[in-house]
Design goal:
Distance between the termini: 36 Å
Largest sheet: 7 strands, mixed
Bound molecules: S-adenosylmethionine
Number of strands: 7
Shape: globular
CATH class of the largest domain: Alpha Beta
Helix content: 40-55%
Length: about 325
């Protein structure tokens, strides 16, 4: 079981949050608190950091930091916590999403995220909420399982159909090895793109945790929570979540949608965010921490434009 997690793009993310200026910074994915600790080191005395995580074990890891009066921890899904903060009229100067799983979660076989070590087929970030991977795979229509594998794991359609049929024929599945063995029986080890279980596990995990829905709703709430000049920083690890962040920012850059033959803009498009840089971890970081290899960091700055009524609420 992992005893630590190496925070990915730590210095780049904290610099982009401009933590030395931030009055209120939100670390929406506390995990092991690596980013939070660095933000606290940079934060001026009057500042504060709100940590959020839906994993009860992350809440335990946050407890020693509560001695720092500038830090508070809100357990729960980040979309719900950010929405509550926005609804209660709070404002934030910087919000960080460091998405995906921590090494604490991946490397603990009892959490069911590992396709290498045997354990219960769970995969919930909060094991007390929602349905487990086993409940999903043992009850869903094979066509639904197939859709999940293609959509969230980029598993080719025919491969996804073979895996979902194999899963259905082996029900009930109860351990991670039950799923790994079903994948192996369906598509073997020699399919392109590495171990095929990797993408299957990723897809099922994204589905049972509603990761993309939660991210869309959280970004909507972040938009309301950030004040003028507030900074949004998102570190993503797979294409689905990166697309959600990229589209969210692009949709709010205020691009004119008037027909090209109009002499002046009449659509009234106004930028809600100014897009910042897209960056990747350095070669040194990837060498030291191979789990950072797929990371991509997107940043954006909230403008002073007020929000239209229609952009409020969940996505
Ligand atoms: C990559 S880890 C963050 C690591 C952290 N930045 C650090 O340096 O230790 C992602 C964390 O976000 C949490 N998480 C992911 N999606 C979440 C959501 N929708 N709501 C709340 N927490 C979430 C996971 O439980 C996990 O602990």
């Amino acid at each position: 079981m992992a005893t630590s997690h190496s925070p990915v793009m730590l210095e780049e993310a904290v610099a982009a949050l401009d933590a030395s200026e931030a009055g209120t910074a939100v670390d929406a994915t506390f995990g092991g608190g690596g980013h939070t600790r660095r933000i606290l080191e940079k934060l001026p005395p009057g500042g504060r950091v709100v940590g959020i995580d839906r994993d009860p074990q992350a809440a335990e890891r946050a407890s020693d930091l509560l001695r720092d009066r500038r830090f508070s921890f809100w357990p729960g899904p980040f979309d719900e916590v950010l929405r509550e903060m926005a609804e209660s009229g709070e404002k934030a100067d910087a919000i960080l999403f460091d998405l995906g799983l921590s090494s604490f979660q991946i490397d603990d076989p009892d959490r069911g995220f590992s396709y290498v070590h045997d354990g219960p087929l769970d995969m919930r970030m909060n094991p007390e909420a929602g349905i487990s991977a086993a409940e999903f795979l043992n009850t869903a229509d094979p066509r639904e399982i197939s859709r999940v594998l293609s959509e969230y794991g980029d598993v080719p359609r025919r491969e996804a159909a073979r895996v979902s049929r194999e899963v259905a024929s082996r029900r009930p599945l109860s351990t991670t090895m039950d799923l790994t063995n079903a994948v192996r029986a369906a598509v073997g080890w020699k399919e392109r793109g590495g171990n095929p279980s990797k993408r299957v596990f990723q897809a099922v995990r994204i589905h049972v945790n509603d990761e993309l829905g939660s991210l869309r709703r959280a970004l909507d709430a972040a938009e309301r929570l950030l004040g003028n000049g507030g900074r949004l920083v998102a570190v993503t690890f797979q294409s689905g979540e990166d697309r959600v962040v990229k589209r969210f920012i692009a949709d709010r850059e205020g691009k004119c949608v008037c027909p090209p033959d109009l002499p002046i803009c009449v659509c009234g498009a106004k930028p809600i965010f100014r897009r910042g840089v897209v960056s990747r971890p350095s070669k040194t970081e990837v060498g030291e921490n191979p789990r950072s290899a797929s990371a991509r960091m997107r940043t954006a700055v909230r403008t002073s434009e007020p929000l239209e009524e229609h952009s409020e609420g969940g996505g």
